[in-house]
Amino acid sequence: MTRLLSIVLLLTLLLPGAAQAQTDTLCFVQFIHPGLEHQPDTPSGRSWNTAPHRRKFLLNPGRYQTALAAAPQSGHLVFWGEYEPPTHLVQTYPVPVSDGPQYLFTPAPVPFYPNDPPLMNTDPFVFGNHFIYSICKQNNKRGPTAMQRLARGSVILFGSGRGRTRFVVDTVFVVRDYVDCTLNTYREQLADVVPPEYFHAALEPIAYETQVRNLTPSATFRLYIGATVEKPFAGMYSFFPCQPAATGQPQGFARPAIHRPGIITDNLTQGQRMNPQSDLAAVQELWQDVAQQILAQGLALGVHADLPRLP
C-alpha cells in the first residue's frame, strides 16, 4: 500500500493537471451564446437551421410560477429560447417593443435527416421532464473544457450580450445530475435517460457533423440533467423567463437583463465566466437573486415546457 501511495503521489507531482482535470467544481456560470433572432425563411415559418445559432421567441404549453414560493400554473407560454428544428410562424410584430421579438414561432419537429450543410443542434433543451445541456463549449482544440466538470448544484445562466452594456438571460439551468458520454457510445448510454425527440434535436446533428467533418468521435461530453420543481437540488430548480400567452403574446417582451457585480460581466460578448463558488449557500443566494430580478421585470418563471412530439 505504501508503494502504491508513493506512485500516486509521484504521478500527481509530475502531472498536476491529471488529478485536477477530473475534479468537479461548483460554479455559477455566465454562459454567452448568440443572441440574434431567427427570421422566417418560408411563408409558413422557419426550416431546420443550418447557419449559426440564433434565438427564437416561442409559443408552447407549459407551467410557470409568478413567485418562487408559488404553485406552478399551467397554460400556453411565450418565451425566448433555442430551438433549431423547424417551427411554424404564429405571428409577426410589425412594431416590436424595445429589444423585443419580431416573430413568434411554435415548434414543428421532424426527425433528424442528413444534410449538407449539417443541421444545427439545440443546446440547451428546455422541453420535457427536465432541461438538458450537453455539447456547447464542452470541447475546444485543447480538449475538454471546464464546462465538462461542473459539480451538482452548479448553475448556468445561458444568455447573450446586448450592446456591450448588458447581459440578458433566456435559460437558468441548475445541475441536478449528469452522464459522461462519448459520441461513440451516446446512443447506448442515454437510451433510457433522454426522449427520442432529444436525440433528433440535439445529439444526432452533432454526431453527423462530427462524421462528415472528420472530427474526433471519441471526444467526451457531459450530458447535464436539470433540477426541476418536483426534483430540486438544494431548493433550486431550472427555469426560463416567460409570460402567459394571454399577457405576453400580443406584443412579446425583451429578454431580462441580469446585473450582479463580481459575477456578471455586462459587456461580455463571447465565452463564459465560470465563477467558482465555495459552497451551495453561495449558489443559492445567487440563484434567488437572479429569479427575483426576472420577476421584478414583470416576467414569470417557466418551470416546464411540454415536449414537442415527433410526428
Would you identify the regions where 5 or more consecutive residues have pLDDT less than 50?
1-20
Beta strands, count: 15
Helices and strands: which structural class?
Answer: alpha+beta
Basic shape: globular
What does the average pLDDT come to?
92
With strands numbered from the N-terminus, the spatial order across the biggest sheet is: 7-12-11-10-1-14
Strand fraction band? 25-35%
Task: Please give a structural write-up.
The chain has one domain (24-305). Helix content is 20%, strand content 28%. It has six helices and 15 strands. The strands form four sheets. The chain has a six-stranded mixed sheet. The protein has a four-stranded antiparallel beta barrel with strand order 3-4-13-15. β3 and β4 form a beta hairpin. The relative contact order is 0.22.
List the helices and strands and how they pair.
Elements: H1 2-14, H2 16-21, E1 28-32, E2 45-46, E3 56-65, E4 73-81, E5 87-92, E6 103-107, E7 132-133, E8 139-140, E9 143-144, E10 155-162, E11 166-182, H3 186-190, H4 196-212, E12 220-226, E13 240-244, H5 245-248, E14 272-273, H6 280-296, E15 300-305
Parallel strand pairs: 1-10
Antiparallel strand pairs: 1-14, 2-5, 3-4, 3-15, 4-13, 5-6, 7-12, 8-9, 10-11, 11-12, 13-15
Main traits of this protein?
alpha+beta, four-stranded antiparallel β-barrel, 311 residues, 15 strands, 20% helix, disordered N terminus, six-stranded mixed sheet
